[in-house]
Write a structure and sequence with these properties.
Elements lengths: L9 H20 L4 H4 L6 E3 L4 H12 L4 E5 L2 E6 L1 H4 L12 H4 L1 E2 L12 H11 L3 E6 L2 E7 H13 L3
Parallel strand pairs: 1-2
Antiparallel strand pairs: 2-3, 3-4, 5-6
């Protein structure tokens, strides 16, 4: 037997850490929604665009690392450098975004009305850094862990 009672197993430690995090962030996130924090300036690109044009005109021009993809006016998926780096550079001119993107069906998404706490839980549970924000099936922007962290940092700096 452990000298000070029950020995905490890794699962118990994770549960304790999660409870602590919820107590700490709960008041900050209460009453806040994805719409309050999301970036609505997230570029939306056409899935028919080839990788060469996309990298040259979108990624390298604006530095965005995660872009939403639409096809025929509907949300189709997400493209990041991770998907692109698996395609040989000589194939970029003949490869479309649609053929390498992460398809919408396999993505976790939220709506502008989703609570920030719920969005953060989805990111943590699924180990993703950002979530597409959809309204009526159409992309409206992105919300990311870094945006939530900036909120915490700003509140800490202002001692609110």
């Amino acid at each position: 037997m452990a000298p000070f009672g029950k020995l905490l197993l890794p699962v118990d430690l994770q549960a304790a850490a999660e409870s602590y995090r919820q107590v700490e962030v709960g008041p900050i996130l209460t009453g806040r929604h994805v719409a309050d924090l999301m970036s609505s300036e997230c570029p939306i690109v056409d899935g028919r665009m080839d990788l060469q044009q996309f990298v040259d005109e979108e990624m390298l021009r604006n530095g965005k690392r995660c872009l939403l993809v639409e096809e025929d006016g509907a949300f189709a998926g997400l493209i990041t450098p991770h998907e692109i780096k698996h395609v040989e550079r000589r194939q970029w001119p003949s490869t479309t975004l649609s053929s390498v993107m992460l398809p919408a069906a396999g993505l976790h998404t939220v709506t502008p009305e989703t609570s920030l706490k719920d969005a953060l839980d989805v990111m943590a549970t699924n180990d993703v850094n950002q979530l597409p924000v959809l309204a009526s099936g159409h992309p409206r922007g992105m919300v990311s862990r870094s945006q939530v962290l900036q909120l915490f940092q700003t509140r800490a700096e202002l001692q609110v």
